[in-house]
Design goal:
2 copies of one chain form a homodimer.
Chain A (H helix, E strand, L loop, with lengths): L8 H8 L3 H9 L6 H13 L6 H8 L4 E6 L5 H14 L5 E6 L4 H13 L4 E4 L10 H5 L4 E4 L10 E4 L1 H15 L4 E5 L4 H16 L9 E3 L4 H12 L7 E4 L2 H13 L9 E3 L16 E3 L2 H16 L9 E3 L2 E3 L2 H4 L14 H6 L2
Parallel strand pairs in A: 1-2, 1-3, 3-4, 4-5, 5-11, 6-7, 6-8, 8-9
Antiparallel strand pairs in A: 10-12
Chain A binds a DNA duplex through helix 2 and helix 4.
DNA sequence: ATGAAAGCGCTAACAA
DNA sequence: TTGTTAGCGCTTTCAT
């Protein structure tokens, strides 16, 4: 026989010679209970250090007050921010977050999602690696509230919250234009939707400002800084060289900056550089990097809010939400002194992520 | 009346005119069941897309297969790593992680811990901000398995897994000594145990190598890079100036490096610098920073392993574990070219944390 | 090999 | 104001 729980409602009821229901009502502040019994119950509960058993409660109420969060990797600063923001907005409503990750393996993702459903989470937030809706069949049929973040999945009928990547491209490029750049290049990312969108934004900005759009100014890079380094080296051989570069993401930008400085050119005087992502260290680089923030906190917050609305039944049927990105200007586009160390940059960002 | 669950065991039982017990046995591979009924049950289960209800199961088995993880802030790279590592070790055993944070507020911490217990987690891992055992009373009396990580709490009887901070100080300092430094300073951290330990390690190393220990070479800093900057400026006025500095953590080291370069000195030729923590961006700085890694992954892994041992009943009564830190040598102690950009550093670290 | 009975700790509906 | 009855979906025990 399994050991009994310590301090249950029936313990209190027995001791006080009242019914369990009475105890339950007192503990949840429901129904009409005389002040006298109320006090007695509360007293005994405290004596026994009573802790409600959420599992038992959940079994009957059909609510676990947990939400499942499924991410490719919650170690990534972006997703970590999102996760925290979700936990934050959901906590005041009494929910906890069960977090899981799938390392970009859509098989694991589906399995984990099903597990979370089996655990009776009240809602699910997923940054999916799925490419089609098939993986979502079983989840959807259980019709538990679902919100997709960061990556859209075709044909899945669920609200989506993510960054407006086109706006990122536009914002970055327009910033370079405003700064006076006229020959603006782009180190583009890999063959995924996000990268295509950022490229499209770059093109749209050039078009809107009637600037030339030479294909030789669009060089393929990928995720990593090394690809940015190589791409930039190619770009430097183009004639005339660009006076501004928008890079797919911050690592690529970091690589690009190294290439520029290795070539003996200065940032931003010869070439201004803009990244995208605003990973935390952008601030502490040799030349702090101007970048476009993706609004991780806002994504998490909105996603959680939409999920809550669904779970609480206020079926506002939240439509998709695109979070507008924000430009973060640093010295890679605005500084004047370049080959020496910049003045002390933000004193906050480094501390924020490291104090412990 | 609340809506019924879709596809329960009794549904299958009814359809097949067998008992729920039989279904249960088949689904769990327990007891003796004829191949025939077995097949029928499995078939019907698949048709109904049966998902076991873990809540119901948990109520009777008294196991939820969840572990609670309570951190000051899971956005911090160190804790994020720890969390991931825990999730990783625990997953093959069928456990999920409910993650929560408390922003260094020990009141919230206690409340959250109790909530997690109410949710019937099978075990708890906490990086506590508690300074005494009082906050743990209720948790301990429920005697649910508990493992403390990163920060020890006096008088709490629970296994602890953390970094050997004294070893960090020793390792860093000895590295500077080996490099040839003879005048080694320390920018010490705030008035907490960890900082004191690192300082002690620094002192021990100097003593062991019979190097001078002038108090003017120990300057107080704190968590943030700005404090490192100020501390280093003070240090530069000392005569003779040091030829090596061990900094409490990486941000402090980053601040220190800025001060050194602002003073027109070179790193590491004039002054070599070592940090501690190995936050991800240490690699992409103007001068990549030599630092001491705290073994976040290992901490998470060990903690999880100990917890599992406790939960599964193999009461090995895991003793405290101190993870030995690892030195990560970069150019702030080993480079030769200094005022120009270093050769392209590690191509991995940046990508690792940013590709998405 | 199968099932009937009992119960996990709690809440919902209805009675008294 | 209080209590009785009846489960939630599952597992355990013990008969058959």
């Amino acid at each position: 026989m399994l050991p009994r729980m310590p301090g249950t409602m029936s313990d209190i009821a027995r001791d006080l010679k009242v019914s369990v229901v009475t105890v339950s009502k007192v503990l949840r502040n429901r129904g009409n209970i005389s002040a006298a019994t109320r006090a007695r119950v509360l007293k005994r509960a405290k004596e026994l250090n009573y802790q409600p058993n959420w599992i038992a409660r959940s079994l009957v109420t059909r609510r676990t007050f947990t939400v499942g969060l499924l991410l490719p990797d919650f170690t990534h600063p972006f997703f970590a921010e999102v996760a925290k923001s979700i936990a934050e907005t959901v906590r005041p409503h009494g929910y906890h977050v069960i977090i899981s990750y799938f390392e970009e393996d859509s098989g694991i993702e589906t399995k984990e999602a099903e597990l979370l459903v089996a655990r009776q989470v009240d809602g699910l937030i997923i940054a999916s690696a799925q490419t089609s809706r098939t993986g979502f069949q079983r989840i959807r049929q259980g019709k538990i509230p679902l919100v997709l973040i960061d990556r859209q999945v075709p044909n899945v009928k669920a609200p989506f919250v993510g960054t407006d990547h086109r706006a990122i491209g536009r914002l970055a490029t327009e910033h370079l234009i405003e700064r006076g750049c006229r020959c603006i290049a782009h180190l583009r990312g890999p063959a995924i939707r996000i990268a295509a969108d950022r490229l499209a934004g770059y093109r749209a900005a050039l078009r809107a400002h009637r600037l030339s759009q030479s294909p030789q100014y669009v060089i393929p890079a990928s995720y990593a800084d090394s690809t940015g380094y190589e791409a930039m080296r190619k770009l430097l051989r183009v004639n005339p060289p660009p006076d501004g570069v928008f890079c797919y993401n911050d690592p690529v930008a970091i690589g690009a900056m190294k290439a520029i400085r290795d070539a003996g050119l200065s940032i931003p005087d010869d070439i201004a550089v803009v990244g995208a992502g605003n990973v935390h260290y952008s601030d502490v680089l040799a030349v702090p990097l101007t970048t476009v923030d993706q609004g991780a906190r806002e994504i998490g917050h909105q996603a959680a809010q939409i999920l809550i609305d669904q779970m609480e039944g206020s079926r506002k049927a939240g439509r998709d939400v695109l979070i507008p990105p924000k430009l973060v200007v640093r010295q890679s586009t605005s500084g004047r002194r370049t080959m020496q160390m910049p003045a002390f940059p933000s004193l906050h960002s480094v501390k924020d992520i490291t104090a412990r």
